[in-house]
Amino acid sequence: MARYGMVIDLKRCYGCYACSMSCKVKNHTPPGVFWARVLKGEEGTFPNTVRQALPVLCMQCDDPSCVEVCPTGATFMQEDGIVVVNKDTCMGCKSCLMGCPYGARYSVESWESYFPDGLPLSEYEEFAKQQWEETSGCGVATKCDFCKDRLGTGKDPACVEACPANARTFGDLDDLDSEVSILIRRHRGQQLNPELGNNPKVYYLMPR
Amino acid sequence: MDPKVNGQLQTEWGWLVAIYLFLGGVGAGAYTIAAINGFMGESLEFSTIVGLWISFPALMIGSAFLMADLGSPARAIYAGMKPKTSWIARGFWIISIFMVLSFFHLLLHRSGSTTADTSLVVISVLGIIFAVLTMAYTGVLLGASKGIPFWRSGVVPVVFVVSALVTGHFMIMLGVAVFGESAAVETLRVMAIEAAILVALEVLAIFFFLQAAFKTPDTRESASRILRKRLFVVGYFLLGLGIPLVLMVYIGRTDGALDGGPTLVMVGALLGLIGGLILRQAILVCGALPTWNIAGFKFRRIARPKEPKPAMGMLPPH
Ligand code: SF4
Ligand code: SF4
Ligand code: SF4
Known about the structure:
The complex is a heterodimer of chains A (208) and B (318).
Chain A: E1 4-9, H1 18-27, E2 37-43, E3 50-56, H2 65-69, E4 75-77, E5 83-85, H3 95-99, H4 123-135, H5 158-162, E6 168-172, H6 179-187, E7 202-205
Parallel strand pairs in A: 1-7
Antiparallel strand pairs in A: 1-6, 2-3, 4-5
Chain B: H1 15-38, H2 45-69, H3 87-110, H4 118-143, H5 155-179, H6 184-213, H7 217-228, H8 230-253, H9 261-285, E1 293-294, E2 297-298, E3 300-301
Antiparallel strand pairs in B: 1-2
Helix pairs in contact in B: 1-2, 1-4, 1-5, 1-9, 2-3, 2-5, 3-4, 4-5, 5-6, 5-9, 6-8, 8-9
Bound molecules: iron/sulfur cluster (3 copies).
């Protein structure tokens, strides 16, 4: 069985938010929900400072704290290592939103319009809302699922496909000859906050 | 509506969960005190009755507030599915068993059982065990959240247990002051001394909690936020801890002969109760996500200027 993971090259990423947007389009997430996010940070003191973009998503932890805290068993890890939410048994207690140290989970009460002042949903939004309710849903926890419906179709996850800098690579971590495994080995891939013990399956290649 | 960033405050758990934790604490705290007082003889008898009457309804109403916070309340039946790892699931069972016990205790008491009967003793001991578990659970539940370092401190369950005892105690005092007749004055005096000791313990627990929170970078943001919160400083520190402490010491020292006794008790107890609720809400809403770092590269967020709200004229046609 495969164990899916992702590699994000921080040297290549220039923080354009294409991953955020493509994830939104593919998964029809409502306003305020960002499964793929890009953080902008800086480090150092003047004049030796660097500015760096850090794209984040669900880390698909191997020891996921979201699964641990879920009282209903709605959140679980599939055999292929992807952590998913069963929208039909989640009761929306939001303890997984508090249990995830990477801020990867979202829960909305309803699919509201992107436009201000209580305008009715546009036609596209109506479609997006319907899609959202079929795949993720309101009143339950939602998160990135590595675009699991694309697995086996030969297509990469939407955010990987959309990245213009080619900073994102998706593949099987258990296959030592896969591109992700080679990248992690060659460039010493790092996990985000490894001290938390969640053992993420998303790896980063360092900018320096 | 911004994407979640490091150091950002959580916004999912607010007043509803605070009320749930508060009433859970009141119910369990009141029960513990009532059951212990039950063994203390005649003078505290009335406080036992009041405490037993408070406990079950408080838990019922508290659970209703948790239900109201659920995104899909109809599925609450699944809440106890995974007690192996989840504290919410363990809490579901702990509170359910505790509610049954406190209900039976009340029934036994009504039917005239005394502490000389083994059945009442057994149910009291079991009840106290589950009451303590309930009080601790309200804190451990927060401590299980890896995403909020502020709640993960080992002092949090201590704060919650002490505060549950304080609020449960105040709730009983309030009931005794309202329903107890003149004979209650002596009961209130004894209870005021106990209350003063419990409040003093809470002051200590809060001090250690905040002091520890200021020590690590991940929790400092939350700690300084909570101290900048006016509701917390005025509503909890001053009105919810300070004034009740002074009042309880005063009542405890004046032999209960004081005419204004019951009124002062009511004021102090009410303030203490409101303080307990504010404490929980403040701890909840000041919880912040941890700082993300990667191979020594700490992510310091760049503050973004607020974007102006688009004017109506700029919107695309529907
Ligand atoms: S990043 Fe968060 S949501 Fe994703 S698997 Fe890890 S703990 Fe769960
Ligand atoms: S919100 Fe749903 S998935 Fe998350 S912990 Fe609660 S029941 Fe589980
Ligand atoms: S893998 Fe799919 S769901 Fe996850 S962030 Fe990328 S586009 Fe979104």
